[in-house]
Amino acid sequence: MSNSVTERNTHVTMDPAALKADSRRKMTIGEIIAFILLICITITMIFPVVFMVSTALKTSKEMLQFPPTIIPRVFAWENFRTLFANEEIKFGILYKNSIIVAVVSVIGTVFSSALVAYGFTRYRAKGKRILFMLMISTMMLPYPAVMIPQFILFSNLGWVNSFLPLIVPTFLGSAYQIFLLRQFFMSLPNELYDSGRIDGCTEFRLFWKIALPLSGPALATVAIFTFIWTWNDLLGPVLYLSSQEKFTLPVGLAAMMSSKFRIAPYNLLMCASIMTTLPIIAIFASAQKHFTEGIVLTGIK
After folding, report:
1. Whether residue 89 sits in one domain with residue 19
2. Nearest to 228 by CA among 186, 291, 179, 165
3. What's the pLDDT tens digit per position in 14-25?
4. Nearest Cα to 83, choosing from 95, 68, 74?
5. Do 164 and 242 fall into the same domain?
6. pLDDT, tens digit, for every residue of 97-121?
7. Cα angle 192-107-285, degrees, rounded to a multiple of 5
8. Are residues 241 and 209 in the same domain?
9. Are residues 39 and 169 in the same domain?
10. What is the pTM of this model?
11. Is residue 220 within 8 Å of residue 286, measured between CB atoms?
12. Domains identified in the chain, total number
């Protein structure tokens, strides 16, 4: 009888293990399928980057061969030196102009948007919600709807063919960035501001010493978004800039495809694309932690 009880207990104890092993086997198969799908998607997304790097390192002769080669026979590293030395492209000037516009735009957007968002969060006034909704509604306006009035305004101010039309509006805030920062400021406890007032802080000092230092992830998110949008902007520089010495990188890349070249220098164009992409990759990689924290913490409220 004891043997039968032991066999029954063994049978009972073995069944959960068998079920667990079976479920683990099913999960492993699912993970393998998901892993294979991720590999396929990754290869599909990385292939254009690989082809861009490959074309950038090809000679002009190999660049025109068909079918195209993935690995260059001769790595033409001198293409990057030719890109910066070319007097028609003036890539160094394009790079400098883009850096100036992007950096100043990030500073203006971050400061002005944070200041407006703080006001919408901390101050109580009649009609504040209506003003906030009106500001948010401007996000639904397409840029072509305001493009002509803005051009007439900046033209009358004498700002055409300068960086001012691209930089000055950033110091007036951005509706999307204001909304993003407002949601983050609303998650900060009021006790922090009360303790600051007890210590004699003014309202601006509360904003500068308490709200901004605690909003690092949200500010990093706003800075990254603004830098990417400004760095890749083509329509604004095309609209307001007319001299080659003021062109930014997107305009310069488009000009490289113009008819002044007998054959479009695709190898130099790919070199320029690599150099244009590097700052975005570097900034996103260095601020990735703050970027993800900003997205998560902004949605908590």
Report:
1. no
2. 291
3. 455 554 555 555
4. 95
5. yes
6. 999 999 999 999 999 999 999 988 8
7. 90
8. yes
9. no
10. 0.77
11. no
12. 2
